[in-house]
Amino acid sequence: MASSAQLVKVGYSTQIAEALAIKRGLQLARDVGLLSCSIESNAQVVVNLIKLPGTPCSEVGLIIKDIKLLLEEIPNSVVDFASRTSNMAVHMLAKLGLSVETDMFWLEECPP
User: Fold this and answer.
1) Helix/strand/coil (H/E/C) assignment for every residue in 7-52
2) d(CA 82, CA 22)
């Protein structure tokens, strides 16, 4: 298990912010050498864009392209939709990310 919270100083659109969070999660999984990875997001539109063939021609499409490349690098990796109420851990990490002053990472332990 691995998780992270990252300080973001720039105001992004919701789709961009959610796509960047998924990308960051996949980068963490790759960097720590996970052989499988399950990323859950409550951003159904972003998850749907990742699952569609091809890449949208838009700002979020550039991040989706990076996500798809990362998914190819990690065997048995998936990105799935999980509603906010069904996965409170994701919601709590997102709230924590609003208050952190530096990037934080947890491996084999739960965040506070």
Assistant:
1) CCCCCCCHHHHHHHHHHHHHHHHHHCCCCCEEEEECCHHHHHHHHC
2) 13
What is the pLDDT at residue 30?
Answer: 92
% of the chain surpassing 90 pLDDT: 35
What is the set of domains in the chain, with CATH numbers?
A: 2-106 (3.30.420.10)
Main-chain phi, psi angles of 32, to 5 degrees: -90, 0
Phi, psi (5° rounding) for residue 66?
-60, -40
Per-residue model confidence (pLDDT) at position 61: 94
pLDDT reading at 37 higher than 70 = yes
